[in-house]
Amino acid sequence: MPEKPTKFRLRPALRLRVVGMACLWLGLALLLDVLRRSVPALDRPALLAVEWLLVAIFAVVAGWVGWTMLSRGAPLAMDAAGFRNQTTWRRDSVRAARWTDVADVRRVDGAAGTVFVLELADGRSSLIASRLLDVPAQTLEEQLRDRLNDAHGYRPL
């Protein structure tokens, strides 16, 4: 029986932060509407266009949050065969690969948090930003190393 993939979702605090940002855009649009309606000198088509722009930004951000919260996909998914990584926007970062193609896993602790670098045998790499995921960095590191060791046939002594 094939193993079920392990999926790591976004941290709840990150999702709430994005929801708060969407509410901020909507609040700015409402504030601008109240000002425009209460001060006759501000009732201009340009301000109305800015209002609609703020509402559109709210709709885009709220739609993205809804899509990420309701979709079955996760930013990081791993199974016995390989991984799928969507935690970084870098173009040169590999999005998916088989464990047999991964040569090394490195942990890099920096100012932006812990990042795991999965080096592939062909010289490419995949960056996993652990600060975005709802899993402790130590647990994620153990999972990555265990899956890599299993794929290459390494067993603990």
Describe it.
The protein has 157 residues and is an alpha+beta fold. The chain has 2 domains: 10-70; 76-152, OB fold (Dihydrolipoamide Acetyltransferase, E2P) (Beta Barrel), CATH 2.40.50. It contains 3 helices and 7 strands. A 4-stranded antiparallel sheet has the order 1-2-3-4, with no helix packed on it. A 3-stranded antiparallel sheet has the order 5-6-7, with helices on one face. The longest helix is centred in the N-terminal third of the chain and has 27 residues, at 12-38. The chain is elongated. It starts with 5 loop residues before the first strand and ends in a 5-residue tail after the last helix. The relative contact order is 0.14.
What is shown here, in short?
The chain is of the alpha+beta class and about 160 residues long. The protein has 3 helices and 7 strands; from the N terminus they run E-H-H-E-E-E-E-E-E-H. It folds into 2 domains: about 60 residues; about 80 residues, OB fold (Dihydrolipoamide Acetyltransferase, E2P).
Write the layout of secondary structure elements.
Blueprint: E1 6-8, H1 12-38, H2 45-70, E2 76-78, E3 82-85, E4 96-98, E5 102-110, E6 113-120, E7 125-129, H3 137-152
Antiparallel strand pairs: 1-2, 2-3, 3-4, 5-6, 6-7
